[in-house]
Amino acid sequence: MFELAEVSVESSSAGFKIRRVPEHLRTENVRAYEPQIITIGPLNHHLRRKKTHLAEMQKHKVLYLKKLPQRRGEDLSNLLQRRVEDLSNLVRYWVTMRELEKRARCCYAEPIEMSKGYVASMLLLDACFIVEIFRKFKLDLWDDDDNVFWTSWVRQKLGRDLLLADNQLPLFVLQEFYDITKMPEDEETNFQDLILGFFSKVVLLVQLLKVAKIGPF
Hints:
Elements (H helix, E strand, L loop, with lengths): L22 H4 L3 H4 L13 H4 L4 H17 L7 H27 L10 H24 L12 H10 L9 H10 L10 H22 L5
């Protein structure tokens, strides 16, 4: 997610690509290098099938994507018209990710053995979740479906997982999704502000828990 280098499709350099943690480091402490509550991007995608505790956040990804059109004020009064409009916007989001799919593949240091459509869908779900969770932290947009994030240890682990070296999306994917889903309340901020706002709160929370000697830090 925080790979800042713009990697072109034609580039053959692996110097600025998202890569797995070397095996000799991972085997020394597997838990230190694996996501604990959420997988992001293709390199850890397989873990969702092996570790059932990662499935809960996958449900939140789908939920956030379903709710996004309504949150953007695209819920028209006529129910049928609303559903057609919602579907149209979801298709538009997917098409945007599909257009970025080839470029996104080039940001990883190993081949991604997934179909173009599957990668586009993965980018869509993951980008939507990250952008929406950053918005919620920045703008305090929580609702009843977000009660899991009111728990301090979940917030801490979420921040940790989003910083893992191989649990990432290219930054331009997130920026593009943010741009095509901008809301009126986003006008006074930018995506970099959302990133900093989220991690400043998570880091502050971890520091406070350390001082209070709460949690496994």
